[in-house]
Amino acid sequence: MELNFLRTAKGKHFLVQNGYTFTKEKDGADSKIIWKCSQYASKKCRGRCHTQLNNVVWDSDNHTHLPEASRLAAIQFI
């Protein structure tokens, strides 16, 4: 599955997966990247996603909110 990224007005990258947006949390071993839900601070969301070599290798789907269709549309518009 090909990864889908968006860029904010400030140049930050978001990973888009299943209607949720993720920000890069840290780099892991073997070129793995760990992403946390972009609503981590505001909604205390614990959703996480791991990518490796442009593939999603793990998705917790443990979100405390619904997918963010309106937020995605706003980011794409900007």
Automatic annotation (TrEMBL):
Pfam families per the UniProt record, alphabetical: FLYWCH
Keyword hit for Metal-binding: yes
InterPro entries in UniProt: Znf_FLYWCH
One function term, GO molecular function aspect: zinc ion binding
Keyword Zinc: yes
Record keywords: Metal-binding, Zinc, Zinc-finger
Domain of life: Eukaryota
FLYWCH-type domain span: 5-65
Protein name: FLYWCH-type domain-containing protein
